[in-house]
Design brief:
By secondary structure, this protein is mainly α. The chain has seven helices and two strands; from the N terminus they run H-H-H-H-H-H-H-E-E. Strands 1-2 form a two-stranded antiparallel sheet.
Length: 180
């Protein structure tokens, strides 16, 4: 901001002049003829290596050090990776929408165990297991340890000291299906 006259002018670096070396003597005709007739050697001598090496380039290379290769690189084309991820997530959500075998919510399990009590044959149990997407063997194993609440109708009585309208008391029982 402000007038450009009040600002310091930029000074760009000037190119350093190349110092002139002492004038070299022109090679004699014999030396020139010997140099022009030299054929390429079958191996690289030290002189060839020195001639081929740019000192600035070599110093930069040595300063960089060895190449480190990252073997855990990601995809080069991220847009393809994003598309792949999109299709994979769609497949996962479709698979998640399907009910998993042998996995039930507690409320569904209670309904299953209640309906199991009404089964009359092994075929009824198999149909019930298929309907709830559970193995028959898993259902039987589970039913050995877990059951839904059942009341013995003969044990229903009013709560002691209260009227029938205030509540009833009953004994819970473990019920098994009566299979034929």
């Amino acid at each position: 901001m402000g007038n450009s006259a009040s600002k310091a002018t930029r000074k760009y670096p000037t190119r350093a002049s190349v110092p002139k070396l002492a004038p070299q003597q022109a090679p004699s005709q014999a030396e020139a003829a010997a140099q022009s007739n030299t054929l390429a050697a079958s191996h690289r001598s030290e002189a060839i290596e020195q001639d081929a090496g740019d000192p600035d380039f070599l110093s930069n290379l040595s300063r960089l050090g060895q190449v480190r290769v990252d073997h855990h690189m990601q995809n080069i084309r991220p847009e393809v990776n994003n598309t792949t991820r999109l299709f994979e997530s769609r497949a996962r959500s479709a698979a998640a929408a399907e009910p998993a075998k042998n996995q039930l919510y507690a409320s569904v399990l209670s309904v299953l165990l209640d309906r199991r009590k009404g089964a009359r044959s092994r075929q009824d149990l198999e149909t019930l297991a298929r309907e709830f997407n559970i193995d028959v063997a898993k259902l039987e194993t589970l039913a050995r340890f877990v059951n839904s609440p059942s009341i013995n109708s003969a044990s229903i009585r009013p709560v002691a000291g209260k009227s029938e309208e205030d509540g009833f008391m009953a004994t819970a029982v473990w019920m098994e299906p009566k299979l034929k």
